[in-house]
Specification:
With 242 residues, the protein is an alpha/beta fold. The chain has a 4-stranded mixed β-sheet, sandwiched between helices. Helix 4 links the parallel strand 3 and strand 4. Helix 5 crosses helix 10. The chain is globular, with a radius of gyration of 18 Å. The model has no long low-confidence stretch (mean pLDDT 94).
Length: 242
């Protein structure tokens, strides 16, 4: 993102909106994508587009709803009007951070859901994993000042459900391969693979407990085996839901 925006910056007119469609957190800086845009193209106005959508579905004109966030509500609304159509329905918000956290965290959690499917742990386990993952996403969002309605909206819960349930999801597909003990597909970018170590660093800095995300990061780094990670999650102390 930083390289792409740096290349674009000299060609941007002042106050030109730049909408990030990538989801993630920059390594080393812990910057979100709109922060990278703001730093790299100082005259641009950052925005973020995220939500439950596969590029193929959008390209085919299938019904899709997403969230577009910018700090200025008038701008966010104008961008929605410019980009929306009868089949592509963006909803606008000013909760930029909430949208970015949802987009980044769901990719990591989708890898975990894929591992559950690849290991054939059952639909009940997949449902439980997705729900507990949503709790992690929500906790981090609250700690970073995101709104609850954003976490429960299209860019939070909506995108999490999609990416944790469909093989079209690159992150879910990566998790399935890992769970089966197969080489991960290298012809498609799984953003969660790059986001996982940065996400848990951010969570730790905010004193937010994210056991599922921590397990994914540990598996990807080779620090633990999948079986050990599963055992660790299943032997955590019983506690109240929340």
């Amino acid at each position: 993102m930083r390289e792409a925006v740096a290349a674009l910056a000299p060609h941007l007119a002042a106050t030109r909106p730049v909408i990030a469609c990538a989801k993630g957190i920059e390594r080393g800086t812990h910057k979100f994508m709109t922060e990278v845009i703001a730093e790299t193209a100082i005259n641009a106005i950052p925005a973020i587009l995220s939500g439950p959508s596969f590029a193929e579905d959008v390209a085919r004109g299938l019904p899709t709803a997403v969230t577009l966030a910018a700090k200025d509500e008038t701008l966010a609304s104008a961008l929605v009007q410019a980009l929306g159509s009868s089949t592509f329905r963006p909803y606008h918000t000013t909760d930029v951070r909430g949208v970015e956290i949802g987009g980044a965290a769901k990719n990591v959690l989708a890898i975990a859901a894929g591992i559950v499917v690849g290991r054939k742990l059952g639909a009940s386990a997949q449902g439980a994993l997705t729900t507990r993952g949503f709790s992690e996403l929500t906790r981090l969002g609250r700690a970073c000042g995101a709104r609850s309605e954003t976490m429960a909206g299209l860019s939070g819960l909506g995108d999490l459900i999609l990416t944790c349930s469909s093989p079209q999801s690159r992150n879910f597909a990566l998790g399935i391969a890992l769970g089966r003990g197969e080489p991960p597909p290298r012809d498609k970018l799984a953003e969660g693979e790059f986001t996982a170590p940065v996400l848990i660093e951010l969570a730790a800095s905010q004193h937010v407990d994210m056991p599922v995300s921590n397990a994914v990061a540990a598996i990807l780094s080779g620090a633990v085996t999948i079986d050990a990670a599963i055992e660790s999650l299943l032997t955590r102390p019983f506690k109240a839901e929340g």
